UniProtKB/TrEMBL annotation:
This is ORC1-type DNA replication protein. It holds the Pfam family WHD_Cdc6. Belongs to the CDC6/cdc18 family. Involved in regulation of DNA replication.
Length: 419
């Protein structure tokens, strides 16, 4: 009996939709690429390279553009005998201190036999080793620190870009490229670090629908067989992507999800309907993840707001969420948080995009206050809140959504209605 059979009717190369795929050309980023390229030009001229700081929201092509340009730079530098270029690319996710980065760089520059231990040295001696190894390597060394915001102390962000000016290096010309999607990281850099690290700042803005369309078309051509995608699929993925965050990664994921749904159905065309369902499925995953990451009180606050919303009370002020939240907390045998902390949870829900916030003015007295409402599908939220509902009980307002076939389901608590 055959259990596994190839099902390649939809995809020519599904891997082209994966995160680790490096597209041959980048589309819709001409201006930024030009600036970036100009900032790297000194390397080819044999001059001291610029330190570059690249920033922009998630999924806007920062890593892809860096890999793309550095691959070309390496290739083109090879034509010049007097240029000896070394590129070290580090993702700082998991490398949280200057110490870890510095030891990692030392080990990247050394042979297998000469690796150093990643603990036990004073930071100053690790820097000494680093300068020595960089000088031994010589030529031009570009160090890329991607997701640089994971590094939680300043030291290396100052030391590396300044190494040559500080006479730590004689032979090597070093350039640092820092990449981040965390705007507060950039704003919070000390002036000293900022002036050395951000010699050249390049901002990558979010993509609009037209950009995303070009990106998806390029990727779709590699990934799908001809005529598999119906006409509206890519424009729809692009439109959703532009509306959400202008994030290419998210849009490519959506295209892949739509393709997967079509494949599971064993049809040979991907349709608008697959995109819509794919979007729901991805959103469900994101919201679930977001809700799972909340604390118990976060869940109780969300449950309280959800029931008020269903009763038509939203948008609602924090102080009007409070009585229900308190009651739910008591039913769950938890001590309710003070109002301020409860409000923090509402803000967190807003940040996750589960709740919307409206700022209002308090008439003539001039103060402002905030009102909260649900910004997500009720069923979607409830599907991630099973435990909380079990803990507190089924509020009347959600009973239409709760599967009542199950006799073991939590009892409907009638006395909720007067909360
Ligand atoms: N201009 C583009 N042309 C083609 N593909 C692109 C383009 N921009 C982004 N992509 C693709 O979108 C995905 C996300 O891009 P990338 O990883 O570069 O984002 P990022 O800005 O580094 O995001 P993060 O801040 O989350 O690291 C990748 O698969 C990348 O290949
Ligand atoms: Mg990146």
């Amino acid at each position: 009996m055959v259990l596994f059979e190839r099902d390649n009717e939809i995809y020519r190369d599904r891997d082209a939709l994966r995160e680790d795929y490096q597209p041959e050309e980048l589309v819709g980023r001409d201006e930024e690429l030009q600036t970036y390229q100009a900032a790297l030009q000194p390397v080819i001229n044999g001059e001291q390279p610029n330190n570059i700081f690249l920033y922009g929201k998630t999924g806007v092509g920062k890593t892809a553009a860096t890999r793309y340009l550095l691959a070309h730079l390496r290739e083109d530098a090879a034509q010049y005998d007097d240029i000896d270029l070394t590129v070290i690319f580090l993702n700082c996710d998991g490398l949280t201190s200057s110490y870890q980065i510095a030891t990692r760089l030392v080990n990247d520059l050394r042979s297998e036999a000469n690796q150093i231990s990643t603990t036990g040295y004073p930071l100053a001696s690790v820097y000494e080793m680093l300068w020595e190894d960089l000088d031994t390597c010589g030529g031009t060394v570009l160090v890329v620190l991607d997701e640089i915001d994971h590094v939680n102390d300043d030291s290396i962000l100052y030391q590396l870009p300044r190494a040559r000016a500080n006479d730590d290096l004689q032979d090597a010309k070093i350039g640092l490229i820092g990449i981040s999607n965390d705007f507060s990281f950039r704003d919070d850099l000390s002036p000293k670090v900022k002036s050395s690290l951000c010699e050249q700042e390049i901002h990558f803005p979010a993509y609009n629908a037209e950009n995303l369309r070009a990106i998806l078309e390029q990727r779709g051509e590699v990934a799908f067989h001809d005529d598999v995608l119906s006409d509206e699929v890519i424009p729809l993925c692009a439109a959703y992507g532009a509306k959400d965050a202008g994030d290419a990664r998210q849009s490519i994921d959506l295209l892949m999800k739509a393709g997967d749904l079509a494949r599971d159905e064993e049809t040979d065309t991907v349709t608008e309907e697959h995109v819509r369902r794919g979007r729901r499925a991805l959103e469900r995953g994101r919201i679930k993840e977001g809700i799972n990451g909340l604390t118990e009180h976060g869940h109780l606050v969300l449950y309280a707001l959800l029931t008020l919303d269903l009763e038509g009370e939203a948008p609602v002020r924090s102080r009007d969420v409070r009585p229900r939240y308190t009651r739910f907390a008591e039913l769950a045998n938890r001590d309710p948080l003070v109002p301020r902390r409860m409000r923090d949870h509402l803000s967190e829900l807003a940040m996750l995009g589960i709740v919307s916030v409206t700022e209002r003015n308090e008439g003539r007295r001039g103060g402002t206050y905030r009102e909260y409402a649900l910004d997500m599908d009720v069923e979607l939220i409830l599907s991630a809140m099973v435990e909380t509902v079990e803990l507190v009980g089924v509020h009347d307002s959600i009973s239409p959504y709760v599967d009542s076939d199950d006799d073991d389901a939590a009892p409907t608590l009638q006395d909720f209605s007067n909360v």
